[in-house]
Each structure stands twice: as structure tokens, then as C-alpha cells.
Amino acid sequence: MDEHKETLRVGSAVRRRRRQLELTLAVVAERSGLSVPFLSQIENERARPSRRSLLRVADALRTTDVELLAAADPAKTVDVVRADDDTDLDTSTPEARVRQLARGHHQLHALEFIGDHDEGREFQHRNDELMYVVEGAVEMEAEGRAYRLGRGDTLFLTGGVRHRWRATVPDTRVLVVAVGDHVEAVDDGGH
Description:
Elements: H1 11-20, H2 25-32, H3 36-43, H4 51-60, H5 65-72, E1 89-93, E2 96-100, E3 108-115, E4 123-124, E5 129-135, E6 137-142, E7 145-150, E8 154-157, E9 162-167, E10 173-179
Antiparallel strand pairs: 1-2, 2-3, 3-10, 4-9, 5-8, 5-10, 6-7, 6-9
Helix pairs in contact: 1-5, 2-4
């Protein structure tokens, strides 16, 4: 039995957006740096774009990967991501890797950061986020205040908090769970 059901089927969303903008595959290929045959395979669901490729396609189509995924997301999904599954692993930087723990486009985003992280990059998300240090240690700066987090520590950020972080120990593993930026946060009156 195949436990992994493919959930990232963005081809139809890419095609609709491209046609909406009245662009040819050649123009999208030129803008994205991807080949026409690869883009055709994506549109026809014969190829699955990596996260990086999807970002490049989205930029070429003047939209976001989140919007493309929203247009393609199935209503119900059950998906298992095994520890040794590196299909969605971003290994563009050898000392830092990012792995998606929930594939597809959902209200919940879960990422595992392994190794070092670009401490100079500042983040600010529209919705809430939780950071959990699985292994190692990190230094976090949020709203001008510094925090040191070790194994088992969590840090919760409400939407809108500016923050950045870096690993302070080799092979640090950090789990980040967030409400998707495409979801409107609702103030429930403190409940």
C-alpha cells in the first residue's frame, strides 16, 4: 500500500494563471529560468516542481507559491512524511537544510530546519508561529529582545512579530509550525 498520496498538483493552477496573463510557455521559461519542456510537464501533471522551482514559476507569473498551491489544494488529504523522505528537502546550502513536514497547501505549515540558519534574515509573518528546538540550541531575537533556546524549549510568536534566529550548536534541529500566511487571523477575544 502506498502511504504517500501526491498532494502537490499545481499544474492546472500554473496553466490557468499563465493563460490569465496571456503568456506563452516560452515567456514563463525565460522569466523563471526553467525550460519549456519542464514547464509543460508541470502544467500536465507529469512533473512535480521542487519548492525552489515553484517559487521561480510563481515569480514569473507575478504571484506567490502560496496562491498557486491554494488554487490546487485538494479538499481532503492524508499524507505521511517519513523521517528518511528527503523529497521536499531544500539542500541548497550544505550547512543548512529545510524539510517540509506537511506537504501541500494547508492552514498549518510545518518545517524542520537542520543545521545553521541565516541569522541576518528577518521574518515577520501575518499569523501565529511556534518554534520548538528538537536538538541543539538557537539564539532568537524578537521585537528587539534576545532569547536563548535549548533542546525542548519552545517560543511562541503572535502574528506580526519581527524575528530572526540562528543555530548556535552544529546539527541543530528546529521545528517551526505556523498558521499559513494565506489564512486570515481571527481575534477570538482571548479564548
